[in-house]
Protein 1
Amino acid sequence: MTKIAARTESEAPASEPAARVIGRVKWFDSAKGYGFIVAESCSDSDFTGDVLLHISCLREYGEHYADEGAKIVCDAVRKARGWQTVHIIEMERPRAVVAQEKGLRPDYETVTLKWFNRARGYGFVLRDGQDVDVFVHAVALRKAGYEEIEPGTRIEVIIEAGAKGEHVSSVKARR
């Protein structure tokens, strides 16, 4: 009996020409197993749109997560549904991984969930005594074990500054 090896879409056959892409991670959801890259430059003049980043490429590179805004250099091929990463050449390491390797522990702060829309995949939290909304993505909540969460819930988070303002980068695991 002949065994046929299944090929994932991320494994490009030699006949598919790859384009070199330099960009930043737009978002990455480890629970879904994918995210997208916004290209800053590309070697293919016909390039348009974002580039799919599948978790299998991250694993081949030696990581399991990519931070929003992380600089990345990769090869991508055009598929029927758009551009897809086939090989990561270089990527900024996830901040949490680097901090853990250095033995640093993040400072969590307690905030209140203002609102969260599960269908849209995001919401906002408020710091105590402040009226400024801080963005929280469903990925951060899901990683901490929050599949369902109600407004007014107090949670412990790490807040970081990003390209679009402050956002929750991590939520302490639900007990």
Note: The radius of gyration is 18 Å.
Protein 2
Amino acid sequence: MTRKTATSPSGRSPHNTTSRNTTSRNAPPRAWQRMLSGRRLDLLDPAPVDIEIEDIALGLSRVARWNGQTTGDWPFSVAQHCVLVERLATTFKPGLDRRWRLAALLHDAPEYVIGDMISPFKAALGLDYKDFEHRLMRAIHIRFGLPAELPQWVEQLIKRADRASAFIEATRLAGFTDAEAARFFGRPRGLKGPGVERLLQLAAHPPEQARAAFLQRFNRLR
């Protein structure tokens, strides 16, 4: 007697379904991010050609600094932070070349993909996280005409501006006392000149406004 093969209601063999399910389970996990620009960014091997400033601006405008623990109706976004750091870098070094101002503006650009992790969490994750962040930063630099690795003095200047920004944000938005912020971030020095008082008056903006301000600074520096 001929034995019939069982079939599913669709007429397909259940063995085929099992095979497909097994293949799906064994497939490597997705390691790319679809962007609204249509780009597909490989997170493990990011290519400069897949990076668009509109995607960066959109992402950063929706990522909150300080895990969202800031005063106001809106979170203080990474996009706003980047604009502040660029302006602080120029305050610390008047006449700073446009390239390095652009580097300051883009210093946290990888966070449009990986988000803004507070420093204690970054330390807990260790070197693997830093390596991933560094690879993405190199691709972003190349995409926008900067050297993959910045000169050391530029890195140090951006770090100084970044820490000054953290102190300002901490004391004006995130509930830190002046002494507490100074202990963690250092007290900024060299905040002199026209426009400094305006820099110190922080207020969180809606995402669309933060996005527009970031893009405006980018376009002026390109």
Note: Residues 1-14 have pLDDT under 50 and may be disordered.
